[in-house]
What we know:
Elements: E1 2-6, H1 16-23, H2 29-37, E2 41-42, E3 60-64, E4 83-86, E5 90-95, H3 112-120, E6 144-150, H4 153-165, E7 169-177, E8 184-188, E9 191-193, E10 201-203, E11 208-209, E12 212-221, E13 224-231, H5 238-245, E14 270-278, E15 285-289, H6 294-306
Parallel strand pairs: 6-14
Antiparallel strand pairs: 1-3, 2-3, 4-5, 5-6, 7-13, 7-14, 8-12, 9-10, 9-11, 12-13, 14-15
Helix pairs in contact: 1-2
Amino acid sequence: xxxxxxxxxxxxxxxxxxxxxxxxxxxxxxxxxxxxxxxxxxxxxxxxxxxxxxxxxxxxxxxxxxxxxxxxxxxxxxxxxxxxxxxxxxxxxxxxxxxxxxxxxxxxxxxxxxxxxxxxxxxxxxxxxxxxxxxxxxxxxxxxxxxxxxxxxxxxxxxxxxxxxxxxxxxxxxxxxxxxxxxxxxxxxxxxxxxxxxxxxxxxxxxxxxxxxxxxxxxxxxxxxxxxxxxxxxxxxxxxxxxxxxxxxxxxxxxxxxxxxxxxxxxxxxxxxxxxxxxxxxxxxxxxxxxxxxxxxxxxxxxxxxxxxx
Length: 310
């Protein structure tokens, strides 16, 4: 699998092996070093880089990842999709909690990508790679809500550019533990791979990328707060990591919060509620919003009853 690795201005000067490990989820630093030694990392001129190479701002390196033996050909699957909008360039879907976005070790099928392949046929952008056709951005398995997929490379590039310049915006709702003092605020803290657990992210200065999350209180309950969050950046697990960092982990988040189920919820109470972007072909401002799903409404109902509101 060939993957382009662009270097942002703030990443310049980092060791290339460390940068690759930070930006490619399935790579450790030692694995990145092995790929560099094997000549599997190329510079913009197509030449293999050296192990001592420092990342240069604006450079786009090319990384060749070996195919995993357990990976199989993607198969279209007739999995129901909640389609919010669709045209010849893109599709917006409302992903349910529990649905994995793209195939990965442990989840070879039954994913959103398999469902999109069945629904869209061959009309998905190939820029996301063989395992992620059409996927412009992702949300976690146990996060519900809106997600865009591109049907051609033109739309994919345009939407990816909007992610970078923040003209593509995403708004989430969540319930967190505890009571925040402010009615609204901004969390600005860099996020990178957890130093001791490669499956987790963390606020860290080491091999990290800048991240910023805005939040606004929607309702307060005894011991919990209902928030609206908007992303300025799109780091892996960003909302979950940032809210845990300020001492208010997402309700039900066993990775970054309480290990035991709360209020009958054993996975995070986090929903991608709204999305806004510029249509890549027409230039029209597009905005979509979805209702809160049943699991989220049930949590709010329990909190209201606990507060004596119903």
